[in-house]
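Follow-up to my post from last week.
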Amino acid sequence: MGGDLGPAEVVAAVQLVLADAAMDPVTLVGDEAVLRPLLAAAGLADNPRVSIHHASEVITMEDKPLQALKRKKDSSMVRAIDLVKTGAARVTISCGNTGALMAGSTLRLRMMEGVERPALAAVIPREGGHFILIDAGANPEPRPEHLVHNAILGANYAKVILGVANPRVGLISIGTEEGKGNTLTTETNDRLKRINGIINYVGPVEGFQVFRDTVDVIVCDGFVGNTLLKTWESLAKFITSLLKQELKANPLRMGGAVLAKGAFDALKSRMNPDRYGGAPLLGVRGNILKAHGSSNRHALASAIRAAAKIIHQDLYQHTESDVARANALLAAPAPVATPAS
Amino acid sequence: MGGDLGPAEVVAAVQLVLADAAMDPVTLVGDEAVLRPLLAAAGLADNPRVSIHHASEVITMEDKPLQALKRKKDSSMVRAIDLVKTGAARVTISCGNTGALMAGSTLRLRMMEGVERPALAAVIPREGGHFILIDAGANPEPRPEHLVHNAILGANYAKVILGVANPRVGLISIGTEEGKGNTLTTETNDRLKRINGIINYVGPVEGFQVFRDTVDVIVCDGFVGNTLLKTWESLAKFITSLLKQELKANPLRMGGAVLAKGAFDALKSRMNPDRYGGAPLLGVRGNILKAHGSSNRHALASAIRAAAKIIHQDLYQHTESDVARANALLAAPAPVATPAS
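User reply:
Got it. Predicted complex:
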């Protein structure tokens, strides 16, 4: 029912995206009595590309995921996931409770063929573009196979959403020499090297390379990914707040800040992840996109456009086929190293 | 022999700290033929508080730690560690090869009583002050007991270096509710709650709390800590470089930037970790401080002052005593939860 800003913001986003005549039809899932007047007010009442799928309940941010999924069968989230399950929708976007969306999608849709665990992907700005961080928190204790699948899920998502033909995939580690890192990264690195060709694996990357133009996809476990994302947000806010304090310290600096305001605005906009509007939950059997709870109409419109790309570029089929090839390669006996004669 | 800037910078740092009459005597470990003229040039040749301990070799940044330690027995690093081992020095500072310093200290000094693995601590600026991040990379695959020891090592270091009487200790996790996180954080959390009182454990903290004034010590495994530190540095550089680009985009902004220059300089200085000058390697049997390879005289002077605090406030004895108490508590049978009658 629309995240922190409510359903009116969702309707405004639909209005924005439908200005594009090529946009796919959109179904709003939620309380019809609330949605119908909002659509009418937006001049969308008779638009053949908008429909309402009624749901009488809402899972809130405070709800415990598993309990809410069990008790609120007629919630907008459960109904929207089920639209993907039945094929009535090809992708679902939610800005609701992340835990409930992950659990609900995994339980109701089950997994993509060959994949064992879901992964959340996030699009992050860096020098010269953006990268995909996967996993941003769906699976905090993965096995190496899970990270191999994440690499494939992330690479395919990078092709679709960043438009990079052959995305460079790196595994986050604490040193790029062989043997550095921990058991998980060492075993994952071995497997990723074996499936090179299916993805463009460039090897382990260290933290200081993350915001440089080194790789397009960064693979990590969900514990590390979630911690990185949250601390990055925290650090960016801290730097901004320090800079604001310093700029207000005397009239000279304040005058300078007024003149340079355009630079600060531009910086804010470049750091803003709204452009990519959502974090897909990859690896489940169907397309699910998580938008931020505080998404405004522009962020939601970006999410809807991202969802359309996911469909049109057939993300799901391409990913599933790469996973099948990788699993077959990894199931074959590992090559034995022989000294050059 | 002085990191990237060479031994002259170390001598300059010694000159700075010895201006304080209360500063302890300093021994320079390295090539006497190089150091003696530098001391003379700095007017320190006859200063009774400076001495030279000759060492003919140098472990370089490119050396492989274990190999270098084995082959270069007369290196300044090995000699300086041995001064702590024999009690000739109470603390050693190095801005050399981190891997060699960690391995050399662990192998030559062995561990503090009751501690199994060393940990690197880092001092990081945040809103309203600084926090200690431990472990910054010494132990990438710890067991819960190791993190419990890290909490004690970090809390004692926070008392000495941040001057906080009862530092708040948090365990980094991906949700603050019970059961969130992974096996390592769940098991560590259980143990930390049991030793509460020995340290001031406030519970799990999430990434977005890290740069707020929430805790004084953040405990994490060495893989997470090393990755966080390196990505934070990378992100701060990225934000700075974006801002510079934007400020240069037109003459108006450039004028503003000139007026506001003081604010940018102040921000840089507040983000600068030089003030705390070093990352201690905690948990080994003796005091070892790692300074950044690129340390200038001011950073090195801060490290020497930090080293003096470590001695005067008896960091080692306090820590060892807390570890013994915690180990005794954890060795006792775990309390059984009983419902209130």
